[in-house]
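Researcher: We're reviewing a set of sequences before deciding which ones to prioritize for further study. For each one, I'd like a predicted 3D structure that I can look through quickly. This is PGR5-like protein 1A, chloroplastic. If possible, include the structure in token form so it fits the rest of the review sheet.
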Amino acid sequence: MAFTLSIPRFSAISHKPINTCSPSRTTHSVPHFSHARSKSLRRRLLLLPLQASTDQSGQVGGEDVDSKILPYCSINKNEKRTIGEMEQEFLQAMQSFYYEGKAVMSNEEFDNLKEELMWEGSSVVMLSSDEQRFLEASMAYVSGNPILSDEEYDKLKMKLKMDGSEIVCEGPRCSLRSKKVYSDLATDYFKMFLLNVPATVVALGLFFFLDDITGFEITYLLELPEPFSFIFTWFAAVPAIVYLALSLTKLIIKDFLILKGPCPNCGTENVSFFGTILSISNDGNTNKVKCSGCGTEMIYDSGSRLITLPEGGKA
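Model: Here's the predicted structure for PGR5-like protein 1A, chloroplastic, in token form for your review sheet.
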């Protein structure tokens, strides 16, 4: 009695037992696998690693990644920049190119960043004619061919500061002429808006009180059929409340201005108030402010819109 052992050509292990001990089979016996089945098994073995590699490239850390999405347009990345961070990066790129003549990013990256800010509705990328003129003058000065005199340049820069332009805000820096460290001031419109909130609450209270003592005649006018209700609300009631709120604010706080800027020493943003509250006025156009971060004494100048350190102050 002879025993023959035949080895299959497949590396995959079969779970079905193969009976190789048979006296009636010759030495030329082969396993009972069809040619079509062997091709399907090979195809499965080849497709498994391909599918695994596709899944790994399509998902990174549980999120979908599309290689066609531009760096600034990806909406699935956890490290996506906020609008404020992108605006700051855009302004830094503009200032570095126009002031120093250096490019901190490629043209493609700059265009992608600008397009993303435009889609987000940012107003930073929409430059006015004065801002474009200022940047062109800065670039011409760096190249050695100034197109504006120093007086015209300073006048244009001050005008942009008064208009609240962020292009002229360069951050903390050092002057070689005066040997001082200073930074720019900007108007804090949000805090100036908050100053009108108390007067607005008082104006609304007076409005409802007047409605109550007149037997809800104002409410009756607000409930008139359209378009009379719309006209009375937006062309009579709302303007009256706004005018009363602004008048009350100006009665208590006169010629007020709130400026903010980074500390020249540590970069912490500090705020200072300029104006007259009732009959108490501040000391002209300058305020002494102590930094909330490092405790450095600073001088806020509302005329030049600059933060400087006093004589002998450390930077």
